[in-house]
Amino acid sequence: xxxxxxxxxxxxxxxxxxxxxxxxxxxxxxxxxxxxxxxxxxxxxxxxxxxxxxxxxxxxxxxxxxxxxxxxxxxxxxxxxxxxxxxxxxxxxxxxxxxxxxxxxxxxxxxxxxxxxxxxxxxxxxxxxxxxxxxxxxxxxxxxxxxxxxxxxxxxxxxxxxxxxxxxxxxxxxxxxxxxxxxxxxxxxxxxxxxxxx
Length: 198
Fold this sequence. Notes:
This protein has 198 residues and is mostly helical. The chain has helices spanning 4-16, 18-24, 30-47, 52-72, 79-93, 98-127, 136-147, 152-157, 172-182.
């Protein structure tokens, strides 16, 4: 995008930056997310040029990469909208015409939908209502439990005194099903388990 010199500088930073080295060996989703996100940003930047010869290919590849980013982390669902806003702004400033921008946006959104729809359908079917992600209810419940004084592990994987699962991390399936029936995050009883030193 910016020439060979900038590419070498970027590659060096990625190869020697301690945080990126640690992430490269981790099993978190951030590594995959950043990879497909940067692919989407690249193809999105290319599609901003709105050239007839490559507009279709660039827009489709942008939407597909952003769809993969969404499948990796649900926050990615906002990315195609942001790319479409950028395409519209570039078309306005460069006077490319609304039809050119509309076609590029349609291609980005359609290819994104093709990649994302199977997951949305799967999640909606198994939870009983339309959902684009299954994370927010669980995170909300964990945050509520932490606000009551628990540490992260206790809030996520805590058990009660009678050894039943209490934390959302231990019963995610039940959690999603319960959330789909009531429309609200299910309430969990907060039972603090104190450790006794012997």
